[in-house]
Amino acid sequence: MAHPLRFARLGYCRLRCPDLAKSLSFYRDLVGLGVARQDDDSAWLRCSDKPYDLILEAGATAGLSGVGFELENDGELDKGFTHLAALGLAPAWATAEQNAAQQVARSLRFADPVTGLEIDFYAGQAKAGTPYQTPHTKIARLGHVVMNVTDLPAAHDFWVGQLGFAVSDRVEGLAEWLRCWPNPLHHSLALLQHSANTLHHINFMVTDIDDIGGAMNRLKAADVPIVFGPGRHLPSTSIFLYFLDPDGNSMEFSFGMEEFAEQDARAARELEHKAEVMDIWGSRPDPRFGKGSPIVAHHG
Fold first, then answer.
1. Buried-most residue among 90, 126, 228, 299 (CB within 10 A)?
2. Mean pLDDT score across all residues of the chain
């Protein structure tokens, strides 16, 4: 398949939070993210060598308000602008002030035509000035974001057909796990057919299987709902644990993930529609799993 752009990684997610202080406390103290900076309206949190990985924004209602993908270099960003403009998606370059705030050389923004979600493409992000210090769970990176979408075929056409994401695995008519090619991780984005456009979950990849067990006990002690796991996914082979944030959004810690070579990678698998796809160990999710807040549509 054609890959019009070369992506480096999923860079960050933005979450709208009705109680910013409560959400900040949760992600800092229980999840283990570090605070890069904060003000009255936002908190920029990190779990890697990058300046930030999750942005919390004050808002009247909870929602997924944006995602950012880092392209491999400045030339790819120029290609991205031209490509998006040709698709009629009206990309807009960020101002110098906006780029400085995001600590990137250049960036552009446009809207997902299926859900309205704001998407940032950027290049030239420097590493953070100080190492990420974890208070407990040894998080390695922001892993992926998963969205519920009302029109999976249209979402597939956008992310795969137009942006060149690669399908790693799929369940016909229900789910697709996508990698932002040529990033090797099994998926940086996944799409699930649903009755509404909402956040399904955000993932943080940890460095040791003991982080999964330790996190489970710590979260339980703090009365944080565990809604799925621990278990092992069939598609990515990851060991997982899902829990809820203060707004009912599912968050995931995972350890291990299949990786793909840039060339001659295995073909996407067609998986059966059965519970064991989600957990080969046989656990079943809580009904609250994946019932996250709405995707906040961009209105220009």
1. 228
2. 96
